[in-house]
Amino acid sequence: MSAEISNVLELRDVSCASGFGLPVSADFAPGRFHVLTGDAGGESNALLRVLGLLDLPESGEVFVEGRATRALDEDARAELRAQRFGFVFAAPFLLASFSVIENVAMPLFKISQVGPEEARRRTERLLAFTEMSDAAEAVIDDLTLRAQYHVAVARGLANEPAILVVENLDGTLAGAELHGFAALLRRVPAEFGTTVIATASSAFAVEKEDRVLEFARGVIVRDSALQPEPEA
After folding, report:
1. Which CATH code, of 3.40.50.300, 3.90.1150.10, 3.40.50.720, 3.60.20.10, is assigned to 9-223?
2. pLDDT by residue (tens digit) across 27-57?
3. Is this structure's pTM higher than 0.85?
4. 8 Å CB contact between 51 and 70
């Protein structure tokens, strides 16, 4: 039996000339909400693309559940990305010609190739979790923007990923809508055991239980797991 993996994702001296030139190292524990905050120049989003296996780092290594990934060919990287990652991008990118339930179920047939009964079970659970059950047959264009993001979360979780990557968490939503969307994402680890890693601006209202990585000038300047905020 293999040893238990303590971190679902690890970055070791990773650099990317197009986004951040200095080596970055970080560990991401399973079943927790992590947020990368800070820079306005896109460095944290460049890091997010590397850790999500969307871009190849210039140097260093990305470990997914203990597995080194840099030497994988593109097909192997795409397969690992599809099986172990879910994504919620800066825009929902839902298919307007499909209903809510069709958008959520599509990855199940395309990637996991599950049977109809399992697909129904998963989609019903995800729609209930994201509070979208009553809109299952709705047309995407009829939904509010926040509702579209909720559907995007359900779609991102459809294949039971180990990691859910969220780009620009506070880039579009604000106020009560942002608060509700962030609260939904914070419930994901407890409900599904999925690690959530999101980027957000320095203005994003973090909470005590969040693991926060502050990113500036191409480096991590603070990790709340190592440097908690002082008590007020």
Report:
1. 3.40.50.300
2. 999 999 999 998 655 788 888 999 999 999 9
3. yes
4. no
Percent of the chain with pLDDT over 90: 75
What is the rounded distance in angstroms from the CA atom of residue 80 to the CA atom of residue 91?
23
Q: Label each residue of the chain as H, E or C.
A: CCCCCCCCEEEEEEEECCCEEEEEEEEECCCCEEEEEECCCCHHHHHHHHHCCCCCCCEEEEEECCEECCCCCHHHHHHHHHHHEEEECCCCCCCCCCEHHHHHHHHHHHHHCCCHHHHHHHHHHHHHHCCCHHHCCCEHHHCCHHHHHHHHHHHHHCCCCCEEEECCCCCCCCHHHHHHHHHHHHHHHHHHCCEEEEEEECCCCCCCCCEEEEEECCEEEEECCCCCCCCC
For residues 99 and 139, the answer to whether their CB atoms sit within 8 Å is yes
Of residues 38 and 179, which shows the higher confidence score?
179
Report yes or no: 185 and 192 within 8 Å, Cβ to Cβ: no
For tokens 């597995």, name the residue: 67
The residue type of 172 is T
Residue 4: count other Cβ atoms within 10 Å of its Cβ.
7
Query: Does residue 200 contact residue 169 with C-beta atoms inside 8 Å?
Result: yes
